[in-house]
Amino acid sequence: MEFFSSNKIYDFMSKRNLFVSISLIFIIGSIVLIFTKGFNWGIDFKGGTVVQVQFQKQAPVKEIRELLSKKYEGVSVTNFGSPQEVIIKFPVKAKNSVTKDMGDKVEEILKPLGKFEIRRVDIVGAKVGGELTEKGIKALLFAIIGVLIYVAFRFEWSFAVASILALIHDLTISIGFVSLFNIDVNLDVLAALLTILGYSLNDTIVVFDRIREEIVESKERNLGTLINSAVSQTLSRTTLTSLTTFFVVLTLFLFGGEIIKPFSFTLLVGIIAGTYSSIFIASPLLIWLGFKVDDFRKNLAEKGYVNESLIKNLFNIANSIADNRRRGNIIC
After folding, report:
1. Which of 20, 156, 255, 260 matches a 20 to 30 Å C-alpha distance to 14?
2. 3-class SS at 199?
């Protein structure tokens, strides 16, 4: 199945300044949000206690907030999944918030509001939250460094830098949307960001592989033309892969419940940003990084890759002749 004809060449490179300008707007907007609005840090990183309460009728959020605020500072009360359920978050700074009997205390305070059930009590100490934050940042940094080494080893430095810049593009926009929509930043969001790294890199590597094949197989010397051909040939594959993944994650977001929403929302944004960057951002970066087609061909020739490509081309020609004979197009 193809959404786009692999035989048609689309001129992406002539619009590269427009595509990069759009990305810069989103990146700058994301950075502004990160430094001004900040994040809604979850208990995983900030520390504290989470209590999930289910009422038999609609939960009186306002009354719950008023009763708890009298005894605990900085308490957050929000609906969770249904009008009957609420999540109550007690930050570390709330006096006596991180205790094993927090569920009993909440049950005692909320008694006047009707019948309800304490569904869950999660406790994370401030020290553990700090350690999780530190390890989460390290995980992202090590993943980016690993990607840089892998791509540089497989291709060359310009491909590696382009792929890292594309990944930073995807992560920055994803984090910006997390800040904009006030999504709880917890371990699920960190898992989504690491997933975006792998997903976006996979798409970018597919395009880069095709660009390398175009450089080896074609006599064309203009990098923009080669990139247009490579991206056009992978466009259907990229679109199909992205759409199937997108609809799966969208299903999780719509029907997976509140617990999985931070993960699915972050991943949804990352899939869109990653698909966009692999088509419109990663490849144009090669031009701005000064990638030279002739130098790349020279390096491949020194490593013996050109001979392999020649054999591959001859093999493809032989197969084509055999197919034409079977169809009666060639008589000999």
Report:
1. 156
2. helix
* Closest among 191, 180, 136 to 40, alpha carbons compared: 180
- The amino acid present at 247, given as its one-letter code, is F
Q: Higher model confidence: residue 27 or residue 214?
A: 27
Q: Which two tokens stand for residue 258?
A: 């509140």
Residue 85 · residue 55 · CB < 8 Å? yes
* Residue 116 DSSP label: E
- Whole-number mean pLDDT of the chain? 82
Which strands sit side by side in the sheet containing 76-80, from one edge to the other? 76-80, 82-91, 48-55, 116-124
Cα–Cα distance measured from residue 121 to residue 217, given in angstroms and rounded to the nearest whole number: 61
The label of the residue with tokens 């060359």 reads: 156
Nearest-angstrom CA–CA distance, 46 and 190 = 14
CB 280, CB 16: distance < 8 Å: yes
Q: How far apart are CA 234 and CA 214, in angstroms?
A: 12
The residue behind tokens 């997390």 is 178
pLDDT in tens, 125-134: 656 666 777 7
CA distances, 234 to each of 11, 15, 184, 211, 212 (Å) = 14, 18, 36, 10, 13
Please tell me whether residue 8 adopts helix, strand or coil conformation. coil
143 against 54, higher pLDDT: 54
How far, in Å, are 1, 2, 173, 323 from residue 246 at the CA level? Answer: 18, 18, 17, 38
Q: Is pTM, for the whole model, over 0.85?
A: no
For CA atoms 230, 234, 235, 238, give the dihedral sign.
negative
CB 131 within 8 A of CB 60: no
